[in-house]
Amino acid sequence: MQDRRGFMKTACTLAACSCCPAATLLAQEPAAAQAQETPVDVGELQWKLAAAERRFAYLLETLDDQLGKKARIKIMEAVGRRCASHYIELADKFKGNLKGYLDEIQKQWVAKVEWSEDGRTFRVFDKSPTCTCPLVGSGKTSSTMCHCSAGWQKATYERITGAPVEAMVEQSVLQGDPQCVYRIQLSKSAAKPEDKS
Questions:
Q1: Which CATH class is domain 4-186?
Q2: Is residue 190 classed as helix, strand or coil in its secondary structure?
Q3: 153, 125 in Cβ contact below 8 A?
Q4: pTM of the full predicted structure?
Q5: Angle made by CA atoms 112, 129, 184, in degrees to the nearest 5
């Protein structure tokens, strides 16, 4: 099974590198499209990904230099919400079933989930020792990126619970922590899962 970082890296690489060729191929007859297939140059794709990582780091540095903290948070949380839309099918599969979703992600990319005594707050511990975003280069990216993760968490858990949630990044590999840890606070209107993981 492919982990979230691997999936995102593959998806972003394919999307970033193949939008125009894919549109061209779709416009052609199937036989003509097959005749024009060329082998994938892995070295070129790696070079493009490294270049995208650098440019993304430059963009975040520019945001840090040019915008106040509130504006950066708002922008990056919005980006995270958009990114979460790529996982909408998984979230929709577990609408109204928070426990089921938490069980599923612990089989995939989450190490563990810890619940508070009142059952309204839980912490999600990522398995990965690196940032799971494929555009983040190790040691190159500002921790402003962490607000993207908070937006992703908010969008996902709001979709599953059908109610607003608060999400906060408690620990981040971009800030030197061994793993990312997110704290999710359910609203009073969100149903608590009966059997907490």
A1: alpha beta
A2: coil
A3: no
A4: 0.74
A5: 40
